[in-house]
């Protein structure tokens, strides 16, 4: 019987996804009147040549 | 984060779940974070395949480079905050692998490779690639010229002289506003033109911001002066 190799996977503290694919585009409205883009429609493409971070949360 | 680190070219936005619209006032009353509202029609949460409390970080070419979940890594823990900050810091470091003063992302966006140099002028408009990068113009479009505006206005009945120009939103370049009485000798000393706050990012897919300088105090004499904006790579004179 062939020896069976047990692959051990460990969960990293954070996940890196290989920087290959461009994130899918979208256009959403900024609902915060206090932000620097208040009422504007915002797309990730607005942030080309900049680094942008997106937090997916719940207002409630 | 931007106010504390004006040299960073980073913006963070929130994306509210489509069924959470009624609760927006709870979030936006306390902060200035751009808070984008997802909709059932846009379904961005599904489009990006996110989990609740994911932070997704995109590089300057809009490629996903990191996901950091705040349920798994509570930001009340200092090491988690440090890890997230490190992710953004590393992403924000402008990479210039050929050391020509032009960020790799900028060269790839406009030329598709890193073969161009800072002194090249591919659109033959008299502005070098470094000039085009420094002032946020298109290096392959001869019709794209650096808009530098001088403006005299009277807000609240006091004269205000300002100089506005575009610049990269990050901190790779130092800008000085200089004055001359004869177009031969230029000096930044005594120009009394000072930056008016942090540059206003334009979000127009060019990674540029609008910088504004104000004349802090009137010159002591009535001699006319010429104004110019000089850009040099950070770390050089």
What can you tell me about this protein's structure?
- The complex is a heterodimer of chains A (60) and B (237).
- Chain A is an all-beta fold and 60 residues long.
- Chain A has a domain at 24-50.
- Chain A contains no helices and three strands.
- A two-stranded antiparallel sheet of chain A has the order 1-2.
- The N and C termini of chain A lie far apart (57 Å).
- In chain B, strands 5, 6, 8, 9 and 10 form a five-stranded antiparallel beta sheet that branches. In chain B, strands 1-2 form a two-stranded parallel sheet.
- The radius of gyration of chain B is 22 Å and the shape is globular.
- The two termini of chain B are 28 Å apart.
- The model of chain B has no long low-confidence stretch (mean pLDDT 84).
- Classes of the chains: A mainly beta (60), B alpha+beta (237).
- Chains A and B meet through strand 1 and strand 3 of A and strand 1, helix 1, strand 2, helix 2 and strand 3 of B.
């Amino acid at each position: 019987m062939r020896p069976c190799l047990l692959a051990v996977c460990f969960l990293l503290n954070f996940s890196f996804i290989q920087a290959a694919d461009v994130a899918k585009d979208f256009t959403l409205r900024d609902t915060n009147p206090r932000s620097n883009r208040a009422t504007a429609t915002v797309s990730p493409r607005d942030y080309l040549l900049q680094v942008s971070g997106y937090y997916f949360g719940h207002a409630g | 984060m931007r106010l504390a680190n004006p040299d960073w070219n980073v913006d963070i936005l929130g994306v509210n779940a489509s069924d959470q619209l009624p609760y927006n006032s709870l979030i936006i009353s306390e902060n200035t974070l751009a808070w984008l509202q997802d909709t059932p029609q846009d379904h961005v949460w599904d489009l990006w395949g996110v989990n609740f409390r994911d932070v997704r970080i995109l590089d300057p070419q809009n490629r996903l480079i990191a996901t950091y979940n705040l349920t798994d890594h509570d930001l009340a823990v200092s090491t988690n905050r440090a890890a997230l900050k490190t992710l953004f810091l590393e992403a924000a470091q402008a990479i210039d692998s050929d050391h020509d003063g032009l960020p790799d992302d900028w060269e790839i966006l406009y030329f598709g490779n890193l073969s161009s140099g800072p002194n090249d002028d591919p659109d033959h408009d008299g502005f070098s690639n470094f000039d085009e990068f420094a002032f946020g113009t298109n290096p392959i479009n001869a019709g794209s010229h650096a808009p530098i505006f001088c403006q005299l206005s009277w807000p609240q009945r006091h004269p205000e002289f300002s100089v506005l120009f575009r610049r990269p939103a990050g901190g790779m370049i130092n800008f000085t506003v200089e004055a001359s009485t004869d177009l031969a000798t230029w000096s930044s000393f005594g120009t009394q033109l000072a930056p008016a706050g942090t540059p206003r990012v334009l979000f127009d897919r060019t990674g540029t911001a609008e910088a504004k300088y104000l004349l802090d105090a009137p010159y002591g004499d009535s001699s006319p002066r010429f104004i110019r904006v000089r850009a040099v790579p950070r770390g050089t004179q």
